[in-house]
Amino acid sequence: MSSSSLPAAPSHPSRRAATAADRAAVNPLDRGYALLGVLLIAPTVLIFCAVIIYPLVSALYLSLFSIFTPTLAGSFVGLRNYAELAGSPEFWRSLLNNLIWTVLTLTLQVVLGVLAALMLNQAILFRSLARSLILFPYFVSTVVAVLVWRWLFNDLYGILNHTMMWAGILDMPLDWLGAMPNAMVSVVLVGAWKYFPFVVIAVLARLQTIPEQLYEAATIDGAGAWGRFWDVTLPQLRDVLVVVILLRAIWDFKEFDLIYLLTGGGPIIGTQTLPLMVYKEAFGMNEMGRASAVAVAMMLVMLVFMLVYFRVLKARGEEPR
Amino acid sequence: MKRIAGRIAFNLFAWLVVFVTAFPLVWMVITSVKPQFELFRIPPTFWPEQITFEHYARLLWETPFLLYMRNSLILSTATTVVVVAVATLGAHSLVRFRYPGREKLAQLVLFTYLLPSVVLILPLYLMMVWLGVANSLLSLVIAYTTFALPYALWLLRSFMQGIPDDLENAALVDGATRMGAFFDVILPQALPGIISTSLFTFILSWNEYLYALVLVNTDAARPLTTGVMNMLISAFNIEWSLLMAASVMMSIPLIIIFAFLQKFLTRGFGAGGVKG
Amino acid sequence: MSDARSADGEVRFEKVRKAFGTNVVVRELDLAIRGGEFVSLLGPSGCGKTTTLRMLAGLEFPTSGSISIGGRVVNEVAPGARDVAMVFQSYALYPHMTVAENIAYPLRKRGVPKPEREQRVQRAAESLHLTELLSRKPRQLSGGQQQRVALGRALVRDPRVFLLDEPLSNLDAKLRAHMRAELIELHARIRRTFIYVTHDQLEAMTMSDRIAVMHEGVLQQFGTPAEVYNRPANLFVAGFIGAPTMNLLHGQAAEGAFHHPALGLPFAGGSPPASGQRLVLGLRPEDVVLGTGPFAARIRLVEPHGHEQIVQLDIEGGDTLTIRADAALPLAAGEALRWGLRTARLHLFNAESGGRIDAAFTAPAEAAAA
């Protein structure tokens, strides 16, 4: 007996691709629906064009001018702003600072976030209260976070210096924000404190979907606690971690509020990242054209992250989150 | 016996971690109720020796705090209403209609969702000056849509993708128009998603700093973020208790949202992650 | 809706074709369904049956061709104005509405005044034993109850045509049998056109007046259950309908007979296929006689089913036959035995085109067996 794949009915029309006529023959009802769909998205598109697309294009355009911020008078200078940037040590220092800040704070966020998520996934007393408390830094305004931390860091009356001196870690009060490399360390620490809950939430959500059977199977196969973590938990977390790391990398890279409010980029330009440089050029130096050039340069760096993010989502064939 | 000891040790450790994480916020509350002179005690006291609400009173009656609060409430509410209304229609269109360019548009939304404000801010600043709306709450509402709209669209889109297509189809066969089906079936189903999107959008607007810094330099339109920072910068000597009281007051809406609507928040997180 | 119109639930597909981009899902479909008829669209998943149903409902639009209901072309008519009701595979009950509100929804959308609406909901609920559940929300109902609410929502409108998209596939086996009987009764009572999409041939065979078998977007055969079973139009239908499936033996025509290494069957009269023509012979499992006959086989496997046994026979040429045998026959794996055929019930197909060939056979010469 055999049932090979077979041609069906005798009058079987040959399999052919949809023709142009197929696509042209649109049903008026279908066309009406499409029109309604366009109508519903129209406000979004209009707003996008007005407040996102247009400014984006004008940022490119502005970067070709030399503009004095207070009067907004300007003249076309071509690519001179970019040429100046390429030769400006401040720009390269800011880019370097930007990368240092991003890599360090992101690393801390991920490590702390995963550990806290694993901890909160265990049965502890008042778990939901513990979760809320851990998540709160993420939702609190950066302004609030910075005020609190500046008070904690206060060199004379700050509790941090006192506690560390009491514990014998420090002999002298430390200038947390006004000297290097302390300022960078402080900024990185506060950044990690503020944003690690994002990692916690994402990882915790994933942990709760790991089937218990996987752990049971691993236990039967002789895996200890460490083995179960290494062979079951971590591989399951890989996907979510890739997305979280990319998202956080993008967001950390463009962070302005936290650094600006903690150190203002100082001491001198010790913690100045590219977003801060944009602000300083535009409103400190009154060089709006050059500020735009910095912003565009920063965009180009970020595009790399974004492309990787899009690529990862696409490779996974899943909806971007 | 050993197991129980282990559990207790783990609980203690876990709560120590939680305490350290939450300590800055605890310290904020404690500082805000300490009398000014107690702040400068060396070594510092942990529990206030006497509790006072004088800073709160001063904050409310002797500083423009209430004005900032009013501005922030108007600003965040207006942004949320506009953005969520536009995004709900837009997300519905992206999820359930077919027209050319739809996929590209969805990608554009994601791209703008990741776009840094600092790139847009200079042209937006020029635009507001040109429109003559600089230094107003309106200019901030317009500016806030640049991050709030892509964010809300993205979140609502993932919520709406979770509503089965057949629900709308059933309504159509039952005699509803496309818009009728939207109001009768899609909207009630999307409501939890719309609520959590609104909450997140509100928090996002409430916490925004950069646009407020650049676009507004008058107390009449200044929201809490820049307003409170101004109190720090312009003060002759920094009154930390007052600032901590302001921080507590500023966080109250978040605490309310947090306490009462936690289930919506976690749902929002599952659907779309949160802007940082 | 006036009775004169609702009596006329005739449905007609003419040269209907549906493509999504370059993917053609339904090809040149011609199908005429009489008013009041119970028709199943049967086929494996991806055969185009659901798309066909959705085009009829107005949820998809044909790329070309025309669809008419009651003599009116509905290609450009909105789903709600087609006077069809649909029961979805997922039931698609509105989760935020109570059972009563769910059932009343189509009436509300048609502007039926409230008192009449309530009365009709009540009546529909009674006929489906839903009266006690009217104030519940769908998530508080069992699968079978949800199924009945979905039916009620369709029934309450008294539409000309009922569309059912695999409505029983989410129920357990026992409930499915029960609901099958209820659907048959319902159809007998209201005599509306039912169009029923399923991949389950048992459902199609037991409920339908006629079955439209589809495969890869093409209508393979449209006929009564008996026709589809007894005279399959091609190899696909032959292999798809019937459980266990029909045995198909590849062979060829030579010297006025069908030849296969295990058997030779002389054609009787008519116009037999030309010599050299490649053919496929189809034998239903119940059309083989075991114990006596001209051919030899060895038993590979016996599956007792209580009321019968299913036997696998190895025959010459490397083929295996699946046979339905009386439970009383003493059969054991490994035994050799003889077998014969009911020649009047054989099926013959063209191996190249797959099309059915009408041919009669004479009983094979007993001499071959001797």
Keywords, separated by commas or semicolons:
heterotrimer, A: 321 residues, mainly alpha, MetI-like fold, two-stranded antiparallel sheet, 13 helices, 2 strands, 69% helix, C: 370 residues, alpha+beta, Rossmann fold, OB fold (Dihydrolipoamide Acetyltransferase, E2P), six-stranded mixed β-sheet, six-stranded antiparallel β-sheet, elongated, disordered N terminus
The top-level CATH class of the largest domain in chain B is Mainly Alpha
Q: How would you sum up the global shape of chain A?
A: flat
Biggest β-sheet strands, sense, barrel of chain A: 2 strands, antiparallel
Structural Rg of chain A: 27 Å
Number of domains of chain A: 1
> What's the average pLDDT of chain A?
84
Helix/sheet category of chain B: mainly alpha
The CATH topology of chain A, please?
MetI-like fold
Helical stretch tally of chain A:
13
Any idea what the shape of chain B is?
globular
Compressed to H and E, one letter per element, the order of chain B equals HHHHHHHHHHHHH
The number of distinct helices of chain B, counting runs of at least 4 residues, comes to 13
Question: Mind explaining what this structure looks like?
Answer:
With 321 residues, chain A is mainly alpha-helical. Chain A has 13 helices and 2 strands, in the order ααββααααααααααα. In chain A, a hairpin with a 4-residue loop joins strand 1 (65-68) and strand 2 (73-76). Mean pLDDT of chain A is 84; it is low at 1-24. Chain B folds into 2 domains: 2-54, no CATH class; 58-272, MetI-like fold. Chain B is globular and about 75 Å long. Chain B has 13 helices and no strands. Chain B has helices spanning 2-32, 36-39, 54-62, 65-96, 102-113, 117-131, 137-161, 165-173, 178-207, 210-215, 224-234, 240-260, 262-272. Helix content of chain C is 25%, strand content 34%. Chain C has 10 helices and 20 strands. Chain C has a 6-stranded mixed beta sheet, sandwiched between helices. A 6-stranded antiparallel beta sheet of chain C has the order 13-12-11-14-19-20. The radius of gyration of chain C is 25 Å and the shape is elongated. Chains A and B meet through helix 2, helix 4, helix 5, helix 6 and helix 7 of A and helix 1, helix 4, helix 5, helix 6 and helix 7 of B.
